[in-house]
Amino acid sequence: MDNKYDLDKYYQIIKKCGFNGIESFEFYIFLKRFLNDDKQIYELALNYKYDAEIDEIIKKYEDKYKECIAKNESFWIYFDDKNKLMNLIAKYLDFNTLNKYILQNPPKWSYKFDFLRGYVYTYSFEDNKLEQKCDWDNVYKDTISVIRETKGRAFYFLRALVDLYYKNSKPHPFDGFSLEEILRKIKEYTNSTKTIVGRDWTVLKAYAIYFKTGSNRYPEHAIPIECVPAIDKALEDYENSGVKI
User: For every one of its 245 residues, what pLDDT tens digit does the chain have, with 9 covering 90 and above?
Assistant: First the structure.
């Protein structure tokens, strides 16, 4: 892989999300997407008791954890405590520790999206395989394929999403944007709200560069936040190729 991707823009997103490094950010996405289970997060946190904030939360639930293990009961912690643990753990986590843990304790489900397609790490929920490998070249190729298979209709939809992520003051790794927001952005480019239709949604999902989030009542549309720079570069190159969109 060459240096064709804009890492400065990736760092901008990362810092808006409260992280300073790519690895810790992608570990955080992994935890939120695949280890969003109270017991698993608590057990992973036990590796980092030397951190005062982590140790404080561990001690808060220590008796409860031991009791649940002894009685084979489900274990839970408050949402705010779990989210704080995830943020803190991500800053200490390393590949070997995480890989060893998930091999012994495979993730039970995925949240919104079945893959991690990052700059440093790649993961498939189905295979439970974590790799120290950049997947951006594949994301780039998949984006080009999506544009071609939708006869260009996905171009401005993806362009709108990428720009919304970049311009959001605090993008969230798992929140998306409403169709109304996306159409407003598309209109800025084309003076039209023409966007993807029917089968195009299936194509987007099949190439794993899009997922639906929000709720049934208030649906939102998202791209994996760790893929934004690769999708952005594919859109830029496609547009500059002279192909009529």
Answer: 557 899 999 999 999 999 999 999 999 999 999 998 999 999 999 999 999 999 999 999 999 999 999 999 999 999 999 999 999 999 999 999 999 999 999 998 898 899 999 999 999 999 999 999 999 999 999 999 999 999 999 999 999 999 999 998 777 878 899 999 999 999 998 888 778 888 999 999 999 999 999 888 999 999 999 999 999 999 999 998 866 65
What 3-state class would DSSP assign to 214? strand
| Length of the chain as a residue count | 245
Domain 136-240: CATH architecture, name and number where available: Orthogonal Bundle (1.10)
Q: At 30, which helix (H) or strand (E)? A: helix 22-34
Cβ(162)–Cβ(228) below 8 Å: yes
- In the block, residue with structure tokens 């395989």: 129
- Determine the distance from the C-alpha atom of residue 171 to the mean position of all C-alpha atoms in its chain, rounded to a whole number: 11
Looking at 126-166, which runs of residues are DSSP E strands? Answer: 129-131
Q: Where are the domains of the chain?
A: 7-131, 136-240
For residue 222, what are the β-bridge partners? 211
b/e per residue 135-167 (b: at least 16 CB within 10 A): bbebbbebbbbbbebbeebbbbbbbbbbbbbee
Which pair of structure tokens corresponds to residue 27? 């570990």
Q: Whole-model pTM? A: 0.92
Contact between residue 198 and residue 149 where contact means Cβ atoms under 8 Å apart = no
Nearest to 136 by CA among 12, 33, 238, 3: 3
